[in-house]
TrEMBL record:
Family: Belongs to the GlnE family.
E.C. code: 2.7.7.89, 2.7.7.42
UniProt GO BP: regulation of glutamine family amino acid metabolic process
Transmembrane segments: none
High-level lineage: Bacteria, Bacillati, Actinomycetota, Actinomycetes, Mycobacteriales
Region (Adenylyl removase): 1-485
Region (Adenylyl transferase): 490-991
PANTHER family, alphabetized: BIFUNCTIONAL GLUTAMINE SYNTHETASE ADENYLYLTRANSFERASE_ADENYLYL-REMOVING ENZYME (PTHR30621:SF0), GLUTAMINE SYNTHETASE ADENYLYLTRANSFERASE (PTHR30621)
Name this protein carries in UniProt: Bifunctional glutamine synthetase adenylyltransferase/adenylyl-removing enzyme
Biological role: Involved in the regulation of glutamine synthetase GlnA, a key enzyme in the process to assimilate ammonia. When cellular nitrogen levels are high, the C-terminal adenylyl transferase (AT) inactivates GlnA by covalent transfer of an adenylyl group from ATP to specific tyrosine residue of GlnA, thus reducing its activity. Conversely, when nitrogen levels are low, the N-terminal adenylyl removase (AR) activates GlnA by removing the adenylyl group by phosphorolysis, increasing its activity.
SUPFAM superfamilies to which the protein is assigned, alphabetical: Nucleotidyltransferase (SSF81301), Nucleotidyltransferase substrate binding subunit/domain (SSF81593)
UniProt GO molecular function: [glutamate-ammonia-ligase] adenylyltransferase activity; [glutamine synthetase]-adenylyl-L-tyrosine phosphorylase activity; ATP binding; magnesium ion binding
Length: 991
């Protein structure tokens, strides 16, 4: 509360200066003189005025009130001097609400409502007063008369609510304010119904049986000062007359009292405004969605036919408590949580009391979810009020008693601020003043009864309390769901009653865990670890489980986290990092709950987890570039003379690099091109390290090696466009060293190539390292290694169209640099023919493509969703680009390129295709590649077929960088993009 310096300790009281009263308005002195409050007789009243939240606003309103009262002002002024209660209520409400200042100026006699002994009327009294006012003022006078009556009743509540800021009046409890506001809303709705019936039915026809059901905060009896009132209509007969009455009620109530909203009715705004009880029941049995049952938690008869209202609630409530058994309950709940967050603009999220992080909706959503999960088995939870539900959840052991008390305190504090902000101008708002608006924040602190402490003034205390309560709500929001689960499996006992195993499984199932029994087993194993590890896990798990529940596969994520925790049991840094670096923990949960590929890599390369943190220049996952990793890998392998140990060292670094790349990919830090380049760099480094190790092992001791060897990358390796599941397509070319016969050189080089292929392809728990040499001349029947001259002779005499096409992606990747360069110069004459290719060759390429489409698609595969060979997939795009290369590379030097994407850029620049056509092909290639990579990340092994709707597809969508886990929308986009690309392929490749 704003404190004013005390007057002199001795002597006669003196009139304080304007400054000491906290008045900053330039006209304040003149205003006091106009009121005549400049004598010693008014000192006590002036100090009371100074304690108003906004003393200047209160003083201005008093001046206006004196002007409109005229001679009657003296009566009010005299009453203020002797009636401490009136003084406290009037000064406080005028300093808290400009809106009520305007109301009192418009209706100056209303000050009398605040004089003497003032108490709140009962709900019955409120209803009687407003209905009587309606009946006495039917017709044109109804609106103004009821508007004033409603504002007068609101004025009395507001004055009692804020009076303690000025005088030592008792502070009204939040629950009391919310109940009274709801009772007043009920009375207003009943009065509006009275007017509507008179308007529509008159004296000629009977009033229809119509019940008004309050929803939302009004239904929960926790209404705000200024709020929409959500209602639903249920009638005995949903005929035209009843519908007109309901419509007239909403129109009149909205114009007179508050905005009414019937959008929560069946089918929303598109549905009938009025339904019979049977119609409501039929809708909720067959069509209602989870959020509609969640909304019904707050349903309460508010006005109209009381018996019909009770029948409505009794008929629908049993369905509410069965909602958790619905098949789509979990996905609907998760979608609702996301929608709440997305509704808030990022630039005001920190100021939003209702929808911001750690705000009111977090509390309400969590409480409602727990009610839906456990309410069928525990009737004590079948209450509408958030505060009452928190009490019952704590009493029943569903959340800790201390947590229930703390969350209630934070909820009531945030609601108090919301009330004060709405009172200021009698407008609906949930937005805190901007951080730099010091005066607005200082006013809010005073209006909210906040007093200075020993270290801070009221403004400082407000800022501290806002931060503390927001953080407490955010922390408890996770703990609310998961701490009792830990208690149920034997964690540290925090409160007397624990969740039963059945209740714990219900709760886990509602949070997205499909195997809640297994999840409880994992939790028991994690928390039962002795000493420090068990204690840290108990602290961490509520938050980690909350983050996991937002991933596509929380069950798999929890299992992976258990495996990782057990594998790193001796690594103290692991749990310490998760505890101290929330960004690391949150990112790790996202990875574990999405991917089966990465967790196994992390077990063997746990140091990658530390790079999940943010560094000075960005995420540490991106600190190392592909070139640096490649050099490190080759150097590490080079320290070992034994090829097996050298390749083991290379595998270790490859494992770490794959974990890094895949993590960055899943976390949205690398785009498709970046992933492909990074994976290619790893493969190239592994090939170089393996070749070097085998050559070292088989090199003559006192003589040079018999041959130089180069490794030529083909396919996606040659195009630097590898995916997670790609093999390494290569060819080996050798050249005899001086004095060595070609036959000897080829034999030695073949031994080297065989060992490289065998050692890399040896069984391992790592992702496979398959070296595929089937693109060499004569395929599997041809020699593994040829000399440069042999390759040249073969391509000149025997090369088929598909072999020339394959050379378009040939690029040196390892071994002797000069030999690789000369090989590429040699094949340029064949892959980029000087006169292009003949019509016969074009037809042959089309024939081969048609055969591939017909024969290579796996049996049972869906051609629409096979990422490699399906409609508009990778093969379609790559074959189309390669045909354009063969036709035009002699005219467009930029097409002398092994990358599909870079060739598309050249094709567009050269005008070989229209920009729109190129765009469709490019997006199809990127979409199919991202989807193919995502399939490996999610499944843990290579596959090219997108799954049907379900959790697996949702995970693929997330891993592919889709905006959410809506697998259906992701699949629709994939089909749309590839369908458009296929149309271009038909235009370009097939004609």
């Amino acid at each position: 509360m704003f404190e004013v310096p005390a007057g002199p300790a001795t002597g006669r009281p003196t009139v304080p200066s304007v400054g000491r009263l906290g008045l900053v308005d330039a006209n304040a002195r003149a205003s006091l003189e106009q009121l005549g409050w400049v004598t010693n007789a008014h000192v006590e009243m002036l100090w009371a005025l100074s304690r108003a939240p906004d003393a200047d606003a209160a003083l201005r309103a008093l001046v206006w009130l004196s002007e409109v009262l005229g001679p009657d002002w003296d009566e009010l002024a005299a009453a203020l001097r002797v009636d401490v209660g009136l003084r406290g209520r009037l000064f406080a409400v005028l300093g808290s609400s400009l809106g009520f200042g305007d109301h009192l100026v418009a209706h100056p006699d209303s000050w009398r409502l605040l004089a003497g002994s003032v108490t709140l009327p009962s709900a019955t009294e409120l209803r009687a007063r407003l209905v009587a006012c309606a009946q006495e003022n039917l017709g044109a006078a109804a609106g103004p008369a009821l508007r004033r009556r409603y504002r007068d009743e609101l004025l009395v509540l507001a004055a009692l609510d804020v009076a303690s800021t000025v005088e030592n009046e008792p502070v009204l409890e939040f629950a009391t304010v919310g109940r009274h506001l709801s009772d007043l809303a009920d009375a207003a709705l009943q009065a509006a119904l009275t007017v509507a019936v008179a308007t529509v039915c008159g004296d000629e026809q009977p009033a229809p049986r119509l019940a008004v059901i309050a929803m939302g905060k009004c239904g929960a009896r926790e209404l705000n000062y200024v709020s929409d009132v959500d209602i639903i209509f249920v009638a005995e007969q949903a005929d035209a007359v009843t519908t007109r009455v309901a419509g007239e009620l909403m129109r009149f109530a909205t114009e007179t009292f508050f905005e009414t909203d019937a959008a929560l009715r069946p089918e929303g705004k598109a549905g009938q405004l009025v339904r019979t009880l049977d119609s409501h029941v039929a809708y909720y049995r067959r069509w209602a969605k989870t959020w509609e049952f969640q909304a019904l938690l707050k349903a309460r008869p508010a006005a109209g036919d009381a018996e019909l209202g009770r029948d409505y609630v009794e008929a629908l409530m049993p369905m509410v408590w069965k909602a958790r058994e619905r098949d789509d309950f979990v996905t609907d709940v998760q979608a609702m949580r996301r929608r709440v967050v997305e509704l808030v603009p990022a630039d005001v999220r920190g100021r939003e009391l209702k929808l911001g992080t750690g705000g009111l909706r977090d509390v309400e959503f969590a409480v409602q979810l727990l009610q839906l999960v456990h309410g069928r088995n525990d009737e004590a939870l079948q209450v509408a009020s958030t505060v009452e539900a928190l009490h019952e959840l704590g009493a029943g052991g569903y959340i800790g008693r201390d947590d229930a008390a703390n969350l209630t305190a934070s909820y009531e504090f945030l609601r108090l601020l919301e009330h004060r902000l709405q009172l200021q101008r009698l407008k609906r708002t949930h937005l805190l003043p901007a951080p730099d608006d010091v005066e607005a924040l200082r006013w809010l602190a005073r209006a909210a009864h906040i007093r200075p402490d020993g270290n801070h003034d009221a403004l400082g205390v407000l800022r501290q309390e806002l931060k503390r309560n927001s953080m407490r709500v955010s922390r408890l929001h996770a703990k609310l769901f998961y701490q009792p689960l830990l208690e149920s499996v034997g964690g540290s006992m925090e409160f007397p009653s624990r969740l039963s195993a059945e209740a714990a499984q219900r709760q886990l199932a509602a949070l997205g865990y499909q195997a809640p029994g297994s999840a409880l087993t994992h939790l028991a194993a994690l928390t039962s670890a002795g000493g420090r590890r068990g204690r840290v896990q108990t602290v961490l798990l509520p938050t980690l489980l909350d983050w996991l529940s937002d991933t596509p596969d929380p069950d798999g994520g929890l299992l992976s986290y258990r495996k990782l925790s057990e594998a790193l049991a001796d690594q103290r840094w692991f749990l310490a990092t998760l505890r101290d670096e929330s960004a690391v923990a949150k990112r790790l949960m996202r990875v574990l709950g999405t991917s089966a590929y990465v967790p196994e890599l992390l077990i063997w390369a746990p140091e990658v987890i530390q790079s999940y943190a943010d560094g000075p220049t960005g995420p540490k996952l991106l600190d190392t570039g592909p070139d640096g990793v490649a050099k490190s890998l080759v150097a590490a392998a080079g320290r070992h003379a034994d090829p097996v140990r050298a390749i083991a060292a290379a595998r270790s670094l490859r494992r770490r690099e794959l974990a890094r790349i895949a993590s960055a990919d899943l976390l949205g830090m690398l785009d498709v091109r970046g992933v492909c380049r990074a994976l290619t760099a790893v493969w190239v480094a592994v090939l170089q390290a393996a070749l070097d190790a085998v050559v070292r092992a088989h090199a003559p001791k006192d003589a040079p090696v018999p041959a130089r060897i180069a490794v030529i990358g083909m396919g996606r390796l040659g195009g630097a466009e590898l995916g997670y599941g790609s093999d390494a397509d290569v060819m080996f070319v050798c050249e005899a060293t001086d004095g060595v016969e070609d036959l000897v050189a080829v034999k030695w080089a073949t031994l080297i190539a065989e060992q490289v292929r065998t050692l890399l392809g040896a069984p391992s728990s790592d992702p496979p390292l398959e070296v595929d040499t089937n693109l060499r001349p004569e395929g599997r029947n041809g020699p593994l290694v040829r000399t440069l001259a042999s390759y040249q002779a073969y391509y000149r005499q025997w090369a088929q169209a598909w072999e020339v096409q394959a050379l378009l992606r040939a690029h040196r990747v390892a071994g002797d640099f000069d030999l690789g360069r000369r090989f590429l110069l040699m094949v340029d004459a064949f892959r980029y023919p000087a006169d292009g290719i003949s019509a016969q060759t074009v037809q042959e390429i089309r024939r081969i493509k048609a055969r591939v489409d017909a024969e290579r698609l796996p049996r049972g595969a869906d051609p629409n969703t096979h990422t490699k060979l399906g409609r508009g997939g990778l093969a379609d795009v790559e074959w189309t680009v390669q045909l354009l290369q063969l036709r035009h590379a002699h005219e467009v030097p930029g097409l002398h390129n092994t990358s599909t994407l870079e060739c598309l850029d050249v094709i567009e620049g050269a005008g070989l295709l229209e920009a729109e056509q190129v765009s469709k092909l490019r997006w199809a290639w990127l979409t199919a590649t991202a989807s193919r990579n995502a399939l490996v990340l999610v499944k843990g092994r290579p596959t090219d077929q997108l799954p049907g709707p379900g959790r697996f597809l949702n995970a693929v969508a997330v891993a592919a960088g889709w905006s959410d886990d809506d697998g259906g929308a992701f699949l629709d986009n994939y089909l749309r993009v590839t369908r458009r690309a296929k149309a271009v392929v038909r235009e370009v490749f097939d004609t």
